[in-house]
Design goal:
It holds the Pfam family SnoaL_4. Helix content is 31%, strand content 46%. Strands 2-1-6-5-4-3 form a 6-stranded mixed β-sheet. Helix 2 (35-41) packs across helix 3 (58-70). It is of the alpha+beta class and 153 residues long. The chain has one domain: Roll (Nuclear Transport Factor 2, Chain: A), CATH 3.10.450.50.
């Protein structure tokens, strides 16, 4: 394999991974969050760690996402500065990005979160999928949502 081929493969994978991150964040705001959505973004054995809870398995991540987004009238998720590193052989990768996540409560007030996201990916026959994801909150502004127990989450 030539150096040029390796470089080309790296750019191809980085573009595919960056596109996955962008499409995923956009889907949280405008997509239909259902089983087809979950298959498009996650491996069956995905693990997700977020400020409002952890989930294991694609079905659990789907339920968690529907519940989390349902707390808000609308959202806007933005991802920037995507950095990916593909393992030799191209079957796995790690990716990180900066995130700005704005959530509008049903009363019209906003709750904004700035943070870092990190993920492990697996390349499947259908393309790259998230295998393990984590959100690290750096800052917040506004009132967080209230959970079922009446406590801010």
């Amino acid at each position: 394999m030539t150096t040029e081929t390796v470089r080309s493969d790296h750019h191809h994978h980085h573009l595919a991974i960056s596109t996955l991150v962008s499409r995923f964040f956009r889907s949280l705001d405008v997509g239909k969050i259902d089983a087809a959505w979950a298959r498009e973004y996650f491996t069956q054995d995905v693990r997700e760690r977020t400020p409002i809870g952890d989930s294991e398995g694609r079905d659990a991540v789907l339920r968690h996402t529907v519940e989390a987004l349902g707390r808000f009238a609308r959202t806007q998720h933005m991802a920037t500065d995507v950095v990916s590193e593909v393992a030799e052989g191209g079957a796995a990768a790690v990716v990180s990005w900066n995130a700005l996540m704005t959530h509008v409560h049903h009363d019209g007030t906003a709750f904004t979160v700035g943070g870092h996201c990190r993920a492990e990916l697996r390349r499947t026959p259908d393309g790259w999928r998230f295998r393990d994801t984590a959100v690290e909150v750096i800052w917040t502004q506004g009132k967080p949502p209230v959970g079922a127990g009446g406590q801010a989450e």
